[in-house]
Design goal:
Strand order of the largest sheet: 10-9-1-2-3-4-5-6-11
Distance between the termini: 4 Å
Largest sheet: 9 strands, mixed
Radius of gyration: 20 Å
Helix content: 25-40%
Strand content: 5-15%
Number of helices: 12
Length: 342
């Protein structure tokens, strides 16, 4: 959606290089990242049970991505980037420069997505206008329950009423500005407290006027939470195990068999708020050190010995073997209501 002007000759050539590198499983890829997950901040206004930020167990410094650092990074990588995801281990809308960052990326013809808990601090009307005017392509709004009770069970400290108000304000802002973007995707993660609501998600989404919805399975965070923290959250697993990424074994669980060979190590990486580079979104504590893109070029960091070792040992290293992110079972269902804007 909204990607017609993204693919320049240089970006297409880089994508071909990435594809060949992945197929050959090269430790030292020909191309450079085509997609960046960029962390606007690792502060958050909620206390979600499965999030190391929300549970205050994050073992890294906290802060805000500075606009000047973002601009410098994009200027260096714009010839190759096709997509930026503005999210990671905090609430992106807490960064006061988020609209300017999105707008700058759009000026460079880069597709943009942002994920939010939508418990807006401040004016939801002004934030909605800013997001629409920024040119943001897609906004993912976390709505993990269609009643206050089921929502708060998972999004501790949040209010479903605030989320609904923000969505309505955003829909109104799009209408006022006569804009098709951002595409608003209502995201619903299935847990024990909301699995009975799965069948009602589509009606709930349509009534709010969003563009579509996605229903996803629950990740217990065993790749980044201590084992005792993961185990204490077993009560959140849905009873219907076809709604999950795990198989129950007595009072324990194991990850369902991996089906895909992860492509992330050849195509994408994470830039944390302070420029520290992470291999993917499953390393919030930055256990794997890959360098800092504010001090060194991303192209040079992309081929370091650490990165090469990760690619070579993808299926056996401790970091990747507990990851559920590449499972086909991550998304249970999704629907787009406005196919004319895709």
């Amino acid at each position: 959606m909204f990607i017609n002007n993204v693919f320049t000759p240089l970006r297409v050539l880089n994508l071909i290089k990435i594809g060949v590198s992945y197929l050959l499983k090269l430790r030292k890829p020909f191309g450079v990242p085509t997609l960046l997950m960029i962390e606007p901040t690792n502060f958050c206004n909620l206390k979600c049970q499965l999030c190391p930020t929300g549970q205050n167990v994050l073992r890294v410094p906290k802060g805000m991505l500075q606009l000047v650092d973002f601009i410098n990074l994009i200027d260096r990588q714009a010839n190759y980037l096709t997509c930026i995801y503005f999210w990671m281990w905090g609430e992106p809308l807490l960064n006061n420069n988020i609209g300017k960052m999105v707008k700058y990326a759009k000026e460079k013809r880069i597709y943009t997505e942002l994920s939010t808990n939508a418990n807006i601090v401040g004016s939801e009307d002004s934030m909605s206008i800013e997001l629409v005017e920024s040119g943001l392509d897609k906004l993912v709004v976390s709505v993990d329950g269609i009643t206050e009770e089921s929502y708060r069970l998972f999004r501790e400290g949040g209010e479903l009423g605030k989320v609904v108000s923000f969505i309505l304000a955003l829909v109104a802002a799009k209408q006022k500005l006569k804009s098709k973007s951002p595409y608003i995707d209502l995201q619903f993660i299935i847990h024990r407290g909301n699995e009975s609501e799965v069948g009602a998600v589509e009606k709930f989404a349509r009534n709010l006027g969003v563009d579509g919805f996605s229903i996803k399975t629950l990740d217990l965070g065993i790749s980044y939470l201590d084992s005792k923290d993961s185990e204490k959250n077993l009560h959140l697993l849905p009873i219907q195990m076809n709604f999950g990424r795990y198989i129950k074994l007595d009072n324990n669980f194991k990850i369902k068999k991996q089906e895909n060979y992860c492509k992330r190590l050849w195509a994408t990486c994470v830039v944390n708020w302070d420029g520290e580079l992470s291999v993917c979104c499953n390393d919030p504590h930055r256990k794997i050190s890959l360098g800092n893109v504010f001090r060194e070029s991303l192209s040079s960091l992309w081929t370091t010995k650490n990165y090469q070792a990760l690619r070579q040992n993808l299926k056996s290293n401790d970091f990747c073997k507990n990851c559920t992110g590449s499972l086909n079972r991550e998304v249970v269902a999704q629907k787009n209501f406005n196919k004319n804007i895709i």
